[in-house]
Each structure stands twice: as structure tokens, then as C-alpha cells.
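Appendix C reproduces, verbatim, an entry submitted by the partner laboratory led by Prof. M.T., so that reviewers can inspect both the input and the predicted structure.
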Amino acid sequence: MPYEKRGRRFDEAIDALRELWQPGFRSFAGDFYSFTNCESKPDPLTPGGPPIVIGGSTPAAARRAGRVGDGLFPYVVSPDTLAELLAIARASAVEHGRDPAALEVTAWPGCWQPGSALDPAVLRDFVQAGANRLMVSAQESGSSDIDGVRDFLRRMQDDAISAI
């Protein structure tokens, strides 16, 4: 696929999927995708389809999230960079007649600063920057067994999250 058209292709794919996820037989004609009288089964659990979260740590990804996404999930960003990207996403939402407050923002503090998953100050910074959801990985638990991962998640819930 031509690299220079990847953004337009992605935007159109979102439009095509959202059309297909509507009830009944649907049609779509674009530059990259087209279908006639197609139906998506089983029906999406959420009317209109699942939320589309735009991943990426660039201003272009943030603009796309505001323009067509339901959420933004930048990777390896500081709280300050998250705030900057969220400002871009919200401005893009307003520009395109969408509610900027409806964007859900996910952050993964541990990918930016390894070992920070249990640091309430770092987690607080991400929440203050606009994150609605904080992600951790099982690897951050330092354990490879299920009980160790469960203990880590309990510590996240009891210690870190309650502190923010």
C-alpha cells in the first residue's frame, strides 16, 4: 500500500466500518473500499459498533482521534505530551462538530517510565493530563505466574489507584 495514502485509507476504513455496523443491508463507495447491500453479522453489541480508539503519539493521530475516533491511546508519552496531544484532539473534535469531552483517553505510564505503574504521583500526573483510563501490563507485575499478576493488580487497585 502506498505509504503516503495510509491516513486517508485508514479514515475511509473507519467510515466504511461505521456504515456497515448500522442495522440492515448497507452500501458504501469510497476511494479505497466499496460494498453494496452488505450486512455485518452478528450485530455489534454496541449500537453503531464498538468504540474506535486511535493509537498514536503524533499530532496527526490526535487530530484523527478528534475527527473520527471515540478515543485516543498515545504510546510512550509523558503526562505533558499527553496533555498536548489531547488539546489537539479536542480542538479537532470541535472543528468537526463533535463533543471533545466524549473522547476517552488511555495512558500507559509504564511504557513511558518503566516501573512507574505503582507510583501515585506519576499516575496522578497522567490523570491530571486528561487520561480517563490507565493501563498496566502483566509484565509490570514482575511475575510470570497468575497469582503474582493478581497480587500486582490488587496493589494497583488498593494502593496506587486509591491514592490518585
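The longest helix spans residues 146-163. Additional entries are available on request from the coordinating office.
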